[in-house]
Structure formats: C-alpha cells, structure tokens
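Morning, I've got a small favour to ask if you have a moment. I'm working through a protein record and want to make sense of it properly. The fold is given in discrete form, as structure tokens running alongside the sequence. Can you walk me through what the tokens say about the fold? Thanks so much in advance, here it is:
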Amino acid sequence: MADAWGARAVRFGFVGSVCILIGTLSPAYLPQASPVWTVLNQLRWGGTVFKVLGTVFTMVGLGLLMETWLRLRPARRRALGRPQLRHWAVLAIIASPLLIAPPVFSHDAYSYAAQGWMLHNGINPYEVGPSVLPGYFADQVAWVWRDTTAPYGPLALKMSHALVVVAGFDPLASTLLMRLPAMVGVLLIGWCTPRIARSAGVDPSAASWFVMCNPILIIDFVGGMHNDALMTGLMVLGIWLTIQRKQWWLGALVVGVAATIKQPALLAAVVLPFLVVPLPQWRPALAVVRSALRVAASVALAVGTFAAISVATGLGFGWIGAIDVPGSVATVSPFTVVGHMVQWVVDLAGLDPSGVAAVNASRTLGVAVFAVGTVWLAIRHLGQRPLHFLSWSFLLFAFCAPALHSWYVLWGGVLFPMTKPSPRWLRVAVVVTAVLLSYSAMNFALRNGFWLLAVLLMFAVWESIRGHALKQRWELVSGRRGSSVS
C-alpha cells in the first residue's frame, strides 16, 4: 500500500476521485428528494455557484483518473525503470473516496433500493414500476424509470430487498448499501483477472492494470454501484473455477447464479467446455459432436440453475416483459444514433407518420449484426480461443444493442487482456474508454447547465492520450519481469 501511495500517478487518481465525490453533490445526479440537500442548503452549497464548482471538480476528476490509468501502464513503468505496483493497492487508494459517495453518473442504485422497498411491501417489481408506491424511495428514482418494471434478475431484486431491511428502511442508507454487492463483484474481478490472465499466457500485471485501474470500472462499478459488477464478478469466478478445477460443470453452476443477477452472463456457459477441452479445428465430425454436446450440457446446467433460483425466489421470469426497458432512454448506441439521424431526414420529407420507423429499423439491423458477428466469432475463435470469443461477443453486443452504457462495455472489457490485443487494439480500447468517459461528462455537464466545461475536458483527455507513448508495445507474455499476480 505504501509503495502505491508513493507513486505520483496514484495520488493523482486519489485526488481525481475526491473531485468526483464533490461533484456528485450537485443537482446533476443528486435527487431533489435526497436528505443530502438539507445539509447542502444549510452550507449554502445549493446555488448556481456550486453547480459550476461541482461541474469543474467532476471534469478535473475524470481527467485525473484517465491520466492515472495511462501513467500506470506496466509497459510505461518498465520503460522508465520503475517497479510494478500491486493493483489491489492502487484500486483501494483511488476508489476509496467513492465508497462514501452517492451513486456516480447514474440513478440505477436508487431504482434498486425502490425495488427492494416494493418487495418488502408485497409488490412485484416485475409487474409495476416504483411510482405505484409513493414516498421517498420512489421520489429518489429518476423520472424515466418510475413507471418501468425491473429488467434485472430475481436474485438481484432479493438482495436489494435484504439490503433495504438491513438499512432500516432508510431510503438514502438503502441506496448506499447497494454498493456492497458491487464491491463483492469488484473483489471477484480483481482476484480472478490476473489468475485467468496467467493461464492464458498473458502478463497478470498488464491484465490487472487494464481492468482494475480502468476509469470506467472505478466510476461505474465502485462509484455507480451497478449490479453488472456482481454479475461480471461471478462470471469470471465461474471461468476461473473451470480453468483451475478442469470441471466445466462447476463453472456452469456459478454462471447460472451470475445470470440471476443479470441475464447476459449465460453467454459464458457456451465457452466453459472449450476451456477444458479445446477444439483446434471444426473436424473431425465426432469431435465436433462431442464438443456440441458438452456445450449443450453446460448451457442447460447454467439455465437450469438460473431457472431453479428464479422459481425459488417466487419472482419467476417477469423480467422478460421488461427486456426492452434499457433501450427506452437516449444513449450513444451507434445503431440508435444512426437511426435517429435517418429518422430526422425521413421526418423532414414527411415519409413516416409514426416517427420511429427508421429508428426501429436501425436497431433491428444492430441486433442482426450482433447475431451474424457472434456466429462468425464462434467459427473463428470459440474452439481454440474461447475467451477471445466471449470478450468480443460481449463487446459486440454492447455496441450493437439499442442502448449503450459504459458499464456494458465492462462485460467483455474485463476479459479483453486475455485476447492478447495488438498495440493498435490497445490504442482503440484507450480511445473508446476516453469517448465513453467524455459522454458521461457531457451528460453530467448538461444536467448542471455547463456543457462547455465538458468540451474542455474532452480536449484535455485527448491531449493526454496523445502525450503518452501508446505506440510502445504492451507486454502480454506471462513470466516477464514485474508480472506477479496483483
């Protein structure tokens, strides 16, 4: 821990998180019903001046987190002759201020708390939205989600209920406790990532840097406390158990549990048998049939686990009716953005009375691209490079889905180092991270009414990326100097 704190870049990251903590205490993401406003108003921090300061602090914080990530890159530290840091310690230092912060850049945690409160009152969140139970819990939820049903897995809802009870039914305390499952997920990711990397012939230090010091993980999983963190943590635990024990059925059981938090985890069940018995090529036929049977059994076991827990909770499969809820808000999903651009032209020409035909068509095209792309990835990589298939399939889904949120990218992002990316793909990953952070920053600044500050951040982040030697090769071969498990 002392070595990590001694690194200037780590102290930059800590200051960045403190800045973001201050920025969360502004109207952009702090609900009007929050009791925090009572304290802020007493301190006279609720006016326009604090909106400006909150936005400035947030923009500076995001810039510092990005700079920290780039400075801690193992290849850079080796080139400078500096020792590698334990990324557990780095994450603990950088993320510590966010442990006491309200939800960062998202209101989802308020929805988790409201859904737990609904369950306590005998109301099924799969049937109605939080607005049917008026009060502080519902008032904290973003207006766009107050009338929508829950798209999450049944175990996630049950955990939310338990945490609401532990919090003594206090709305704010209940929301803050939603960080506990997320932190369990982060701990699982931090434990499994370097171990999976070593088994894949990847430098564990480089893998830990990319995942654990990533600004998106720090902001969305620690700060935003999204239940995707626990889903992802359980998913990588299932992968690690499969690799460690050479038993794909054990991993399938854990993946089934992960799916009860959030359903996309089920895709991981497809790759587990190939982690035990690879298939170098799609022949002979008998080997392919055996692999297909193992995959079918793995998926069936994961789905069976998911179904059994769903029935046991008494909530069943009501999430199916809410599967399109995430797409009901505007995001930077490429296919949705293109759809709106085409729709604008169509509307000008008066060719579509419904006003949504082009958007729906573009979103359907995105789903088709994901389906075709996943099949291509399976043919190309599933048999011999299963983690490559899983990482890129999740990433493809994130960018082809009707809604794109930065935490969706982490589903495949935590396995991205195991794909042994080339220097070009590493640079792409860094740029994509910067773009997603800039989008979050712009969204935040617009809510506070100061979008120009976000533009300045984008410029600063871009200059930071340009200033770093990203053309230097990222060492990914296991056993290199400084590659101890972090």
Notes: The chain is about 65% helix and 0% strand. Confidence is low (pLDDT under 50) at residues 477-486. Residues 249 and 297 are 8 Å apart (CA to CA).
